[in-house]
Amino acid sequence: MTKRHISLPLAAEEGVRAFIDEVDERLSGEEDTCDVVQDVLVDLYGDREAYERWQAGEDVSNAERVRLQGYDPCNSTLESEYYAEKDEEKFKRSKHLQWLWRQFDATPMADNVEFALRFRQMLADHLFEEAGENLRLFKGITMTYGHNIRVGDNTVVHDDVHLDDRGELTIGNRVSISDGVHLYSHDHDIVDQTAVKNFHTVVEDDARVTYDAMVRAGCRVGENSVVGARSVVQGDVPAHHVAVGTPAKSVKIKPGWEDEAEPLEAGGENRQAEREIPYDLPEGVDVFDEFGRDFESSN
């Protein structure tokens, strides 16, 4: 899509740059990440006065206390925190960064596109396994961990996209991920829902995954391909193919690429097994079935 360059007024630009640089420097330094996140959120939400009163031991209401405690990611839990196989060491830091990302997106500043894109780029540089240059990461993006995501240069991820990196997720250069897309890297057993397998899911360079589509775990969306709106990708999409439907099927080859592309019949191949990421649960982890089911007694 053709875009035009837009600049903030000078005073606004100076403020944005100073704030982002300050947070970036603090996250890169020796300070505890949890402390940095808490401090930044207190100021973003304009709660410094109440926070200082609370820290000084003055009385605050129960509602104020819960709100002020909530700026500290160590006082919160995320859904992925309950996943038994997660890497505890990586999650210690990624949880704090993800908390800052999510809470920033709940502020009015998240709608200031110029500010928000640059702030999220800075956070991605700290959170993702690899974050390319000139990323455009829009509002409402959620992720499982963040630390298993690799993204190339000049990629755009639009509003309300879910990046599931319970396994691994690789997104190439110049990729377009439209609003409401879900990219998955884990799958559940059809009988025992608690049995989870993790996979490496790949979206290659110049691919487009359009509105509200879903890419299932372990699939590869090939270079320069297109996944149609609201499609469900359950197998590989070859390079230069256009795949649509549920399940997604290759229906055409992009004009001009006919000589390089595989035939349409090659689309939809399930190669999930090749991309499985085995794991072992940590010793002594206390597990539970959130549905309270007992499969042994039901057989």
What secondary-structure arrangement, pairings included, does this model have?
Elements: H1 10-28, H2 33-44, H3 48-55, H4 62-69, H5 88-105, H6 113-127, E1 130-131, E2 136-137, E3 142-143, E4 149-151, E5 156-157, E6 162-163, E7 168-171, E8 176-177, E9 182-183, E10 186-188, E11 196-203, E12 208-209, E13 214-215, E14 220-221, E15 226-227, E16 232-233, E17 241-244, E18 249-253, E19 276-277, H7 295-298
Parallel strand pairs: 1-4, 2-5, 3-6, 4-7, 5-8, 6-9, 7-11, 8-12, 9-13, 11-14, 12-15, 13-16, 15-17
Antiparallel strand pairs: 10-11, 11-19, 17-18
Helix pairs in contact: 1-6, 2-5, 5-6
Structural account:
The structure is a single chain. The chain is an alpha/beta fold. The protein has a domain at 130-279: Hexapeptide repeat proteins (UDP N-Acetylglucosamine Acyltransferase, domain 1). It contains seven helices and 19 strands. The strands form three sheets. Strands 1, 4, 7, 10, 11, 14 and 19 form a seven-stranded mixed beta sheet that branches. A hairpin with a 7-residue loop joins strand 10 (186-188) and strand 11 (196-203). The chain is globular, with a radius of gyration of 22 Å. 34% of the residues are buried. The model has no long low-confidence stretch (mean pLDDT 96).
